[in-house]
Amino acid sequence: MVDSFQPPIISAPHLLSKSRQVRERAVTALMWTLYAYLWTPLLSLLAWWTGLDIAYETMVESGGWEGLLSVARWYGISIGLIFVTIAAWSNSNRRRFRNKEKRQFIPPVSDQDLMLRFSVNSGQLEVMRGAGIMTIELDEGGNILAVTASSMPRVTTTETSAPALETIALN
Q1: What is the pTM of this model?
Q2: Would you say residue 11 lies in a domain?
Q3: Residues in CB range of 2: below 8 A, 6 or more apart
């Protein structure tokens, strides 16, 4: 009884001689080539329908291939020049700034400097730091008149004294 799921084909290519294997591969390649050749009318129709025949006429028959090669050559030269320029610039900067740290770090501003600059006391400074929303009223000279600081849950208002504000200007 023959199993209906297994085809009755014996495949043992290792038992064939080398010349027989080469002949079978050659025949298989020939048949696939013939099969592909049979598709050429349909492929030509699709190429004509999509406009590839115009591209063929322009590139092959009219000599557009030489123009494309010329443009590709100049494009490659341009890309090469850009690459060389950037590489030279990078190397010159690397040699110029090697082991030289020109960036300077700015020291942090102390609380005393902030209080002197803006004429506020330490309590007002802490209220301003903790505020979620802050409104600052200034006079004509840019001095702080009043600060209204609020966070989401509660509102805190801080008023500064006028004599202290007149002594230090913002500018």
Answers
A1: 0.30
A2: no
A3: 8
Going 98 to 99 to 102 to 108, the CA torsion angle's sign is positive
Sequential pLDDT tens for the chain (171 residues)? 555 676 667 778 788 899 999 999 999 999 999 999 999 988 888 888 888 777 777 777 777 777 778 889 999 999 999 999 999 999 999 998 888 877 788 889 999 998 888 888 888 888 888 888 888 888 888 778 888 877 655 545 555 544 333 333 333
Type and span of the H or E element at 145:
strand 144-150
Strand bridging mode 155-159 / 144-150? antiparallel
26 and 43: one domain? yes
Number of domains in the chain: 3
Instruction: Mark whether 122 and 162 lie in a shared domain.
Output: yes
- Which stretches of 6-93 are assigned E, i.e. beta strand? none
Is 133 domain-assigned?
yes
DSSP 8-state assignment for residue 56: H
Structural domain containing residue 45: 16-60
